[in-house]
Amino acid sequence: MPPDTAFTRMFGCRYPLQLAGMGGFPSPELAVAVSAAGGLGMLSGALQPRDLERQLDAVPPEVPVGVSFLMPFLDVGAAEDAAGRCALVEFFWDEPSPQLVDLVHAGGARCSWQVGSLDEALAAVDAGCDLVVAQGVEAGGHVRGTTPALELVAAVCDAIDVPVVAAGGFGDAKRIASALGLGSAAVRVGTRFLAATESAAHPDYIDRLVGANADDTVLTTAFGIGWPDAPHRLLRSCLEAAEALGPTHAWTPDWPAADYVGDVEARPLYAGMSVDFVTKRQSAAEIVAELMTES
Ligand SMILES: Cc1cc2nc3c(=O)[nH]c(=O)nc-3n(C[C@H](O)[C@H](O)[C@H](O)COP(=O)(O)O)c2cc1C
């Protein structure tokens, strides 16, 4: 029997599993596939508002999904629209804002904040969030804090009463079971779903993930144009490839989507330490089944 948690009850899903918001490119196919497989799919709100609207239009009304917004690129009107159209609106980076939480609630959605420390988790609760995503330093993409995920999850679960979602480096069922055992209501997974057949990532990026392990990832602030001083975890190979291109290289934070034309190797190939468990391209449904079945 899949565990029945505050998260599964809140969103009516079968599994305590959330797809990570992975900003930059529309991927309604992946979000719908994860929701159809029993998790909660997430759309990226870090897009032009028109693109977000198109993504929301692509989701059948009976499929629950959330939308994830990055604070440095927030369009408040888009967050307001998302709150009126989906189950969950989520924010990442910056101080949790009671005004934004109120705006989401006014639209009828639940609100969560991804945080990187206990202090930030407490601030998210004070701001009125319904859920808190506790992100550990193992995470792929932008990384808010410095604490390992299970340590942070244990501290946050002890300190707050709202449901906690564990994030960062969760790539297999065993580690997911540990997070649930500590009291988290769900686990959030990004890197593993980048290699899903429904993912918007470039095939060469996926090949790199398949060939990499946790030791091949690094934390850096290098791809900082438009979002400076923000640590992100990615494959060391792309950092080296970008450095080799010399001082004129554009260090933009956009990862290469399937239609990217150019030097994929030198783009930010975000990857969490969970990349250890990316061994092949497979459907989102297969990934969900693997993550939720402890062998
Ligand atoms: C390619 C990529 C893009 C990401 N973009 C976002 C984002 O837009 N918003 C967000 O809240 N988190 C983003 N993250 C971080 C995830 O929410 C999450 O913390 C992370 O994927 C968890 O670690 P994992 O990749 O090991 O599963 C991103 C992660 C990756 C790998």
Explain what this protein looks like in three dimensions:
With 295 residues, the protein is α/β, with parallel strands linked by helices. It has 2 domains: 6-196 and 279-292, Aldolase class I (TIM Barrel, Alpha-Beta Barrel), CATH 3.20.20.70; 203-276, no CATH class. The chain is 35% helix and 16% strand. It has helices at residues 6-11, 28-36, 49-57, 76-85, 98-107, 118-126, 149-159, 173-181, 191-194, 203-210, 236-244, 284-292, and strands spanning 17-19, 41-44, 65-70, 88-92, 110-115, 131-135, 141-142, 164-167, 186-189, 217-220, 232-235. The strands form 2 sheets. An 8-stranded parallel β-sheet has the order 1-9-8-6-5-4-3-2. Helix 3 (49-57) runs parallel beside helix 4 and helix 4 (76-85) runs parallel beside helix 5. It is globular and about 50 Å long.
Kindly state the percentage of residues in helix.
25-40%
The helix/strand class is alpha/beta
In this structure, how is the largest beta sheet organized?
8 strands, parallel
How much of the residues is beta strand, in percent?
A: 15-25%
Bound molecules: flavin mononucleotide
Number of helices: 12
